[in-house]
Amino acid sequence: MVEKLLSPETYSLLVEWMLNFCKNAIVAIIVYFIGSWIIKWGIRLITKMLERSKVEKSLYTFLTSIVNVVAWFLLIIVIVSILGIETSSFIALFASAGVAIGMALSGTLQNFAGGVMILLFKPFKVGDFIEAQGYAGVVKEIQIFNTIIRTGDAQIIIIPNGGLSTGTMKNSTKEPYRRVDLDFQFCYGADYNEVRQAIADIIEANPLVLKGPVADSEIVAAPWYGLGSLGDSGVVIKTRSWCKGEDYWAVYFGLNETIYQTLKERGFMFPFNRMDVTILNK
């Protein structure tokens, strides 16, 4: 019947096309199964590598999802090409859509890139005390697009990762030890050596203050005291002492309070700004 409806040339071309299509379809099916197996194997391999590198779970889950989508897209393009369908229009369409989406989500993509950089290089982690973007607090959560911190007055601040990854940030928890810098000013009439020794005794008696270098740090040193400057109202004595990071505020406020109370009881006077006004009668 088909032979009677078609000319011999048309019939032979149709048979050749069908044979080629079947051959291509078989190849496409084989490529599909091989490609899907390679994608699954590759995703498992990437996941294991990211897990071993101790990357945040939220990051490697997102990355593996992106790799999975891109891999399947490439596999579909290959299969469509094997079947003889023109793929340039599909690629151009997806490229145009990608450019449009990228322009519309430029800020979001910047925050995503910042989140990836933070999760990969780990300039800070959950539980660290940081100061960035005009805020200071403890890091509660690191997300792909934002970082959540809790301030000292129990306020939750959400900071976009884009600015956080490119701006200046202070991490007070990165190092296990911190230096406590305190300045004390006394009247010029006080004996400098006596005041200095009294301050040194109080600081060295504090059990939280480190008395000298420690094995796991190259910067920790014994407490230091010296004459900082001759101020307008009195002599400024500077002190430098070290403690563990978690003890910083206890040492800071404790030394201030103890030194003030102790030296006041010993009769040392703390100066204050004073202005003398002379009235001339003409």
Which key phrases capture this entry?
8 helices; 8 strands; 282 residues; three-stranded antiparallel β-sheet; five-stranded antiparallel β-sheet; 52% helix; alpha+beta
Taken in chain order, the helices and strands follow as HHHHHEEEEHEEHEEH
Distance between the termini: 135 Å
Described by the principal axes of the CA atoms, the overall outline is elongated
Helix content: 40-55%
Q: Evaluate the radius of gyration.
A: 36 Å
With strands numbered from the N-terminus, the spatial order across the biggest sheet is 4-3-2-1-5
| Number of distinct beta strands | 8
- Strand residue percentage: 15-25%
Report the sheet with the most strands, covering strand number, pairing sense and barrel closure: 5 strands, antiparallel
Mean pLDDT: 81
Unreliable segments of 5+ consecutive residues = none
* Tally of alpha and pi helices: 8
